[in-house]
C-alpha cells in the first residue's frame, strides 16, 4: 500500500540501461515478475502515450513523457534479462497461470477504449484515476519480487519501480485534487 502525502513537483526519473546484466541465480518469481511487468509496462505505455497526445495540462504531459522514457528503458532491460536467462519475454495470460500470486493485474480493454474516447478534462481525470490504479498494481508486483525473488538485479529493479511508482501515485493524487 502507499501513503498519501505531498507529491514531488517533478516526476521522479529512473533511468536504466540495457547494458546492465542480471547475472547469478534467478527463480520462477524473478522470471514471472519480469514477464508480468513487461505486459504491465506495455499497457502503461499505451496509456501515457494517449496522455502525451490528448492531455492539455502541462504537468500531466510532463509526467506522461517521463513515464514513457522510464518504462521504455525498463522494458528493454527486462526483455534483455529474460533473453539472457533463455526465458520467454511474454507472459501467459491464462488466469490459472498466476493464481498463486493473486492473478495478473491488468487494465482491461474496456478501460483503455473509454480512455481513448475521452477528451479534455474528462480525459485527464479518467487517465489520472486509471493510471493511479495501474501504478498501484506495479507497486504490488514489485513487492512480490522483493519478497520472493532471488536475482539481486531484478530485486533492485523492483525496489526502484516500487519507489518511483509510489511517488508517481502521490503526484497524480495531488493532480486529481488540484
Brief overview, please?
It contains 5 helices and no strands. It is an all-alpha fold.
| Mean model confidence by pLDDT | 86
Rg over C-alpha atoms, rounded to the nearest angstrom: 16 Å
- The amount of helix comes to 55-70%
Largest sheet, described in full?
A: none
How large is the count of helical segments?
A: 5
In N-to-C order, the SSE pattern is HHHHH
List how many beta strands DSSP finds. 0
Stretches where pLDDT is under 50 for at least 5 consecutive residues are: 1-18
Ends distance: 23 Å
Outline type: elongated
Strand content: under 5%
- Look at the helices and sheets and give the structural class: mainly alpha
Describe this structure in words.
The protein is mostly helical. Helix content is 66%, strand content 0%. The protein has five helices and no strands. Helix 1 (28-54) packs antiparallel against helix 2, helix 2 (58-84) runs antiparallel to helix 5 (152-176) and helix 4 runs antiparallel to helix 5 (152-176). It starts with 27 loop residues before the first helix and ends with a helix.
What is the fold's blueprint, element by element?
Layout: H1 28-54, H2 58-84, H3 109-117, H4 120-148, H5 152-176
Helix pairs in contact: 1-2, 1-4, 2-5, 3-4, 4-5
Q: Which key phrases capture this entry?
A:
disordered N terminus, mainly alpha
